[in-house]
Amino acid sequence: MEDEGKILPSARSSNTATMTGAGKLQLPASCDPPGPQNPSEQLVWVIFGATGHIGRSIAKAALFHHDLVTTVGQSREDTFTSIQSPFRAYTDRFLPLLCDIRIRPTVEDVIQQSIAHWGRIDIIANCTGYGVIGACEDQDDYDIRNQFETNFFGTINILSASLPYFRTRQRHQHQTSTSIKHEPGSERSTGSPEDEQQQSFLGGRYLIFSSTCGALGVPGLGPYSATKHAVEGLIESMLYETHAFNIKATLVEPGHLQPDDDEDNIDASTS
Known about the structure:
Layout: E1 18-19, E2 25-26, E3 44-48, H1 53-64, E4 68-74, H2 80-84, E5 94-99, H3 104-118, E6 123-126, H4 141-181, H5 193-198, E7 204-209, H6 222-242, E8 247-252
């Protein structure tokens, strides 16, 4: 479930392909590659589970593209040293934090610290996950509940802590743009309501890592599959609720992955 278009938190653009007079398909400006006439915009990421293989790879990619990143580790397993080690070449562009995604106040603290440090948040990625292998009837109550607490309720905690900020930010940007557009002597928009909807400011984006288990059941991973089905239903329902605020979400369903390399450092000279 992917929403097309480049993430532009502070710029307006149409994300709809149009037909030219010659009958050719003209792609939106958001599809243009970065360059002198189309510079890329520096984004602010908050990446939960940044010490895992997927989260670390996303953080590396964001830092490579000169974005600002809050890397969030697990308070019950990680330390500030272990979070900083893979990214210490970019100490000026990443903020290491710890939280227990199962405990909402710690998630709220991460969101507030990120806003205070960077001034805004553009993308929130949830790369956390926990699974137990075993037949459905063999997994004990603790393991089943812990999978739901981490995978499903952890996602809810992230949404609850960040959605009010994204809603408020989108509304503030829209009101500011409207007040400027309607100043005396300014040019009023003559576009259709659909154009205005397409050109509205993006409130924010979520990058939620589900699993192929979120689309089909897998033997030996029954409770884990159930948590991922629940996550996908939650995100799909949320999109209806946040559509008016132009808040987007992307569900990623990875299968078996090969771990990345064991290097702790990012080569700053290649950025």
